[in-house]
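Appendix B. One record, verbatim.
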Amino acid sequence: MKESVAKKLITIVSVAVPVVVAILFGVRLPNVEPFSFLPPIYASINGLTAVLLIVALWAIKAKKIKLHQNIMKTCIALSLSFLLMYVAYHMTSDSTPFGGEGIVRTFYFILLVSHILLSIIIIPLVLHTYLRAYLKDFQRHKKLARITFPIWLYVAVTGVVVYLMISPYYA
């Protein structure tokens, strides 16, 4: 695949995913029991992604290139599975309001908003970083990975923290 075609596809995916998720967020599947079992699963997927991102960083620094590649592909697959479960949950369940008060409530919403915004930004970053590795443009891959890694790690970790903070309020 040509790089120009891949970049166009990345742009399309990077715009389409948040738009489709936003649309599906408002869709409720009729006559379907809530998938209330999913939040701890997709929070665990976020946690596993965070751990694997750190292991992948260690692997590349240790020159274990194949291990790094395999872990990064796993992280992408985990992020995709998270997204599918997240959408499935919200298509079958009402959103849970956060019940905390005061400074905890403020912290929660700051964390939630930053998590959501960065989860949108991370899509093209991950895809462009992966593309550069796929094209064996390792110098540009490394340069972009230095930006992508901390944002992706933040999104994964804050996903777990947001879940832990709201989980007492699930019905």
